[in-house]
C-alpha cells in the first residue's frame, strides 16, 4: 500500500489550497508543462520503468527517420514519378505532404506520446474505434510480410555482387535467350549507340541481361499468379537472414534498436551521396534529370496521379501503419513531438527527391548509351531498382563495388522500416495483455512474430512470388491506409472532441497545436482524403505486371486483403456497442465512444487537471496509514477533520518508513 500512496498524494495535493501544498509537490506541475522541449529536467518522473523509453531523443528521431525513409524512397517514389509524368508528380505530392502528410504525422506522434500506448492502447480515447488500431495492425502485418521479401532480394543481390564480374553483365549465361542484347557484349563500347539503335529498330524484343537475370534466374518467373512453382531456395535463405537480423536488432526492444539506428539511419545518406556524385558525372545524366523534373501537365488531371501521391505520402511517412504511434509511445511525456514531426517529414520528403536524382541520372546515362528514350529503359515496379539500376552499374568501372554499395543501402533502408513494423505488432500485443508475465517475456513475443512473418513470406519466394508481392503492395497498403487515416481524424477531432485534444497537447507540450494544424485536422485533411478516395474508386484500373494482366480471382483476393484491415473498424464498433451499458441504442453509443477512465498520461506524475485521481484527502490518508499503523488511523479518525497539512504529515511519515 505504501507504493501506491506516493502518487496519489501528489495527484490530490493541488486542490488543498495554497496553505497545504508543499513546494516539492507543486513544482513539477508548475514547471514541466513549460518544459516540453527539455524532457530531461525531471528524468526519474518522466521515464516509464515498466515499458521503457528511448535512451535519448536522437534515438527517437533517427528511428523515425529510418522508419519513414525506407525502400519506398528509392524503389517506389522514382517509379511513381516515372509512371505519372516525371516532375508533374511533384505538385500533387507536395500538396498531399503539406495538407495531409505532415498534419497526420504530428497527430499520430502526439497521440502515441500522450498516452504512452501502442496502436491499440491509445484507443482508450474512444473505445468504440479500437478497430482502427486493429486495422493498423493488419496493415502492418501485410506490409511487414512482403517488405522483408524485398529486403531479402536486396540481400541476394548484395551477396552475388561479391565477384569480379557482375552476373548480369553479359548474355552468355545459361538463363539468357537469343533476344538478350547486352551493352558490353562482344566489343561494344559506349560509342556503339548507332548499332544498338539499328538493332532496336529491327526487333522490339530486345531484353537486357539484367532483366533476364531478374526474371529468368532470380525469380524464375512463372506464367501465372496461380502457378506458384517451386520455392527459390536462394531467396528463401536470404529471407531467413533478413528475419534473423531484424529479430536480433529488436531482441531488447527499443533499447537495442535505438542503438542500431545510429548506423542504419545515417549510412544510407553516405552511399546515396556517393552514387549521386558518380551519377551526375556520367554522359546523358542531365537528360535523365530533366525527364525527372520536367512536368507533363496533362497527367495532373488524372485522379490516379493524385491517388498515387496520397498513397505515397502515407506509404513513405508511415501514416496509418501504427508505427508512428508506437515509436512515439516510448518518448518522454514532455518531448517536443511537434518539432520532431517537422524535422522527420521534411527529411523524408527531401530524401525522396534526392533519391530521384540518383535514379534518373543513371537512367539518363543508360538511355544515352542505348540511343533510346528514357521511358524505354525503365521497368515497372520493383524492377526499377533490380533491373534498371543494376544494368547501369555494369557500365561503371569497378562495377561490383558500386553494386555492393547500392544494395547495402537498400538493405539498411529496408531494415529501418522493418524494425518499426515488427515493434508495432509486438508492442500492441504486449500492451494489450499488459501483465508482468508477458512484459518479462517480450523477447519471446518478438521471436514468435518474426517466425510467423518468415513462414507467411515463404509463398512470396516462389516462382509466382513477385505477382503476389505486387498484389499486396497495390491493395493491402493503398486505399485502406487512406480510409484508416480519415476515420482516425474524425474519431479524434469530432468524437473525442478537438478542444479536448488541443488541451491534451497543450498539457503535454506547453502550447496548443498551431492554428494551421488545427484547421487541417478538423477540415482540410479529412476532406482531401475523402475526395481522393472517391476519385481513386471512380478511375480504378485493374493491376498488371508488364504484359501480364491479373485474373479476376486474384484481384478479388487483393480487395479482400484491403477490406480485411478496414472491416476491423465496423466489426469492433458493433461489438463494443453491444457490450456497453445503456437501455437504449443512443446510451450505448455514448458510453462506447466516451473516453475510458484510464485514458490519459500513463505516469501518475503527469495526471493533473481533469486526469487527476478523484480521491478525497481523508480517504487517501485512511488508505495509506491503516495497513501500517491501525492505532494511529483510529486516533486520526477520532480527531474529526484535521487541517489539510496533516495529510502531508502522514505522507512524509510513510515515505520515511
Automatic annotation (TrEMBL):
Ranges annotated as spanning the membrane: 60-78, 90-111, 132-159, 266-293, 313-330, 342-367, 401-422, 443-469, 475-495, 515-538, 550-575
Superkingdom of this protein's organism: Eukaryota
Protein's GO biological process: amino acid import across plasma membrane; neurotransmitter transport
InterPro entries tied to this protein: Na/ntran_symport, Na/ntran_symport_glycine_GLY1, SNS_sf
Cellular localisation: Cell membrane
Pfam family name, one: SNF
Keywords of this entry: Amino-acid transport, Cell membrane, Disulfide bond, Membrane, Metal-binding, Neurotransmitter transport, Sodium, Symport, Transmembrane, Transmembrane helix, Transport
Chief subcellular location: membrane
GO cellular component, as recorded: plasma membrane
Bridged cysteine pairs (disulfide): 171-180
One term of GO molecular function: metal ion binding
Disordered: region residues: 1-50, 614-657
Keyword field contains Hydrolase: no
Polar residues bias: start-end ranges: 643-657
Stored PROSITE patterns: NA_NEUROTRAN_SYMP_1, NA_NEUROTRAN_SYMP_2, NA_NEUROTRAN_SYMP_3
Catalysed reactions, as listed in the record: glycine(out) + chloride(out) + 2 Na(+)(out) = glycine(in) + chloride(in) + 2 Na(+)(in)
Membrane topology: Multi-pass membrane protein
Magnesium as UniProt keyword: no
Residue sites binding Na(+) per the record: 66, 68-69, 73, 316, 348, 413
Family statement drawn from the similarity comment of this UniProt entry: Belongs to the sodium:neurotransmitter symporter (SNF) (TC 2.A.22) family. SLC6A9 subfamily.
Protein name per Swiss-Prot or TrEMBL: Transporter
Record organism: Aythya fuligula
Amino acid at each position: 500500500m505504501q507504493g501506491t500512496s506516493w502518487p496519489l498524494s501528489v495527484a490530490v495535493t493541488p486542490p488543498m489550497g495554497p496553505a497545504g501544498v508543499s513546494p516539492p509537490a507543486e513544482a513539477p506541475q508548475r514547471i514541466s508543462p513549460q518544459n516540453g522541449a527539455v524532457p530531461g529536467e525531471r528524468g526519474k518522473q518522466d521515464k516509464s520503468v515498466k515499458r521503457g523509453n528511448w535512451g535519448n531523443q536522437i534515438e527517437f528521431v533517427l528511428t523515425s527517420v529510418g522508419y519513414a525513409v525506407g525502400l519506398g524512397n528509392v524503389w517506389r517514389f522514382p517509379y511513381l514519378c516515372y509512371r505519372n509524368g516525371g516532375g508533374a508528380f511533384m505538385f500533387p505530392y507536395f500538396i498531399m505532404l503539406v495538407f495531409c502528410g505532415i498534419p497526420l504525422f504530428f497527430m499520430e506522434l502526439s497521440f502515441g506520446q500522450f498516452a504512452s500506448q501502442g496502436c491499440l492502447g491509445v484507443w482508450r480515447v474512444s473505445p468504440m474505434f479500437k478497430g482502427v488500431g486493429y486495422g493498423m495492425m493488419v496493415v502492418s502485418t501485410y506490409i511487414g510480410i512482403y517488405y522483408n521479401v524485398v529486403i531479402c532480394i536486396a540481400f541476394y543481390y548484395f551477396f552475388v555482387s561479391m565477384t569480379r564480374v557482375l552476373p548480369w553483365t553479359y548474355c552468355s549465361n545459361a538463363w539468357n535467350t537469343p533476344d538478350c542484347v547486352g551493352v558490353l557484349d562482344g566489343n561494344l563500347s559506349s560509342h556503339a549507340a548507332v548499332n544498338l539503335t539499328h538493332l532496336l529498330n529491327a526487333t522490339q524484343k530486345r531484353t537486357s541481361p539484367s532483366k533476364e537475370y531478374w526474371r529468368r534466374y532470380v525469380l524464375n518467373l512463372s506464367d501465372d499468379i496461380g502457378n506458384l512453382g517451386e520455392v527459390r531456395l536462394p531467396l528463401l535463405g536470404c529471407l531467413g537472414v533478413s528475419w534473423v537480423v531484424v529479430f536480433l536488432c529488436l531482441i531488447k526492444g527499443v533499447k537495442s534498436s535505438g542503438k542500431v539506428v545510429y548506423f542504419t539511419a545515417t549510412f544510407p545518406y553516405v552511399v546515396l551521396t556517393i552514387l549521386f556524385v558518380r551519377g551526375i558525372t556520367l554522359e546523358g545524366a542531365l537528360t535523365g534529370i530533366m525527364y525527372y523534373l520536367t512536368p507533363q501537365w496533362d497527367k495532373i488531371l488524372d485522379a490516379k496521379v493524385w491517388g498515387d501521391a496520397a498513397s505515397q505520402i502515407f506509404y513513405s511517412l508511415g501514416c496509418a501503419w501504427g508505427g508512428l504511434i508506437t515509436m512515439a509511445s516510448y518518448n518522454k511525456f514532455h518531448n517536443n513531438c511537434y518539432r520532431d514531426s517537422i524535422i522527420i517529414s521534411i527529411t523524408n520528403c527531401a530524401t525522396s527527391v534526392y533519391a530521384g536524382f540518383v535514379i534518373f541520372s543513371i537512367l539518363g546515362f543508360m538511355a544515352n548509351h542505348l540511343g533510346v528514350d528514357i521511358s524505354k529503359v525503365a521497368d515497372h515496379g520493383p524492377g526499377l531498382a533490380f533491373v534498371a539500376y543494376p544494368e547501369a552499374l555494369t557500365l561503371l568501372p569497378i562495377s561490383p563495388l558500386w553494386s555492393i554499395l547500392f544494395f547495402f543501402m537498400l538493405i539498411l533502408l529496408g531494415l529501418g522500416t522493418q524494425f518499426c513494423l515488427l515493434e508495432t505488432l509486438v508492442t500492441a500485443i504486449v500492451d494489450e495483455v499488459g501483465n508482468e508475465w508477458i512484459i518479462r517475456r517480450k523477447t519471446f513475443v518478438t521471436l514468435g512474430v518474426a517466425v510467423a512473418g518468415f513462414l507467411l513470406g515463404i509463398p512470396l519466394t516462389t516462382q509466382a512470388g513477385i505477382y503476389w508481392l505486387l498484389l499486396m503492395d497495390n491493395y493491402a497498403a493503398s486505399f485502406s491506409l487512406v480510409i484508416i487515416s480519415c476515420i482516425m481524424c474524425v474519431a479524434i477531432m469530432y468524437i473525442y472532441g478537438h478542444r479536448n485534444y488541443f488541451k491534451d497537447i497543450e498539457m503535454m507540450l506547453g502550447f496548443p497545436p498551431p492554428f494551421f494544424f488545427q484547421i487541417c485536422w478538423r477540415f482540410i485533411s479529412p476532406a482531401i482524403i475523402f475526395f481522393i478516395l472517391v476519385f481513386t474508386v471512380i478511375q480504378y484500373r485493374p493491376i498488371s505486371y508488364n504484359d501480364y494482366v491479373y485474373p479476376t480471382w486474384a484481384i478479388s483476393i487483393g480487395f479482400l486483403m484491403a477490406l480485411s484491415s478496414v472491416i476491423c473498424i465496423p466489426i469492433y464498433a458493433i461489438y463494443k456497442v453491444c457490450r456497453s451499458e445503456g437501455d437504449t441504442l443512443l446510451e450505448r453509443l455514448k458510453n462506447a465512444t466516451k473516453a475510458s477512465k484510464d485514458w490519459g498520461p500513463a505516469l501518475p506524475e503527469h495526471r493533473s487537471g481533469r486526469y487527476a485521481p478523484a480521491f478525497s484527502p481523508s480517504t487517501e490518508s485512511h488508505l495509506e496509514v491503516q495497513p501500517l499503523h491501525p492505532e494511529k488511523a483510529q486516533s486520526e479518525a477520532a480527531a474529526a477533520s484535521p487541517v489539510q497539512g496533516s495529510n502531508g504529515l502522514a505522507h512524509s511519515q510513510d515515505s520515511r518508513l
